[in-house]
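Person: I have long wanted to understand how a fold can be written as tokens. Underneath my words sits a plain record pairing an amino acid chain with its backbone structure tokens. Those tokens are not coordinates but codes from a learned vocabulary of shapes. I should like you to check that the lines agree and flag anything odd. The protein I mean follows directly.
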Amino acid sequence: MTKQEIIKYSIQKGWTCNTNTGEVFSHKGNLIKAKNSEGRIICSIIINKKAHFFKAHQFVWIWCGNDLPKEGFVIDHVNQNLLDNSISNLRIITHQENLFNTSAKGYYFDKRKNKYRGQIVLNGKDKYLGLFNTEEEAQQAYQNAKKVYHVIK
């Protein structure tokens, strides 16, 4: 069974969710709270004596009538909070765009130069943004570069 089929099966068996809060409830009405190693809410259902797992945000997405994203795309948490599975916090973006939606600082202190080095990641490679006297200048350079390079359409 595909992940989508497993989730649709769970819906048929009575699983529900609150799309405003992102909470998922089992067929017995129990709130699902278990987390995986990434800190995401993980759901499990037994089908033909075999355990199947899916993530709460995937359930909410399908519950709202959507299909799981095709290869190369992911369901993103807009606010970066993996526990906020409300439908308003979920969107489909490319894997590359998902990498843009991080809390990376975009700079570090270069001890050899005694300055802050700004950088941004593009297509898996670091792009040099310059050396800066203050942390604030390096942070601003990174934020400006994000507006140019990390645009999510």
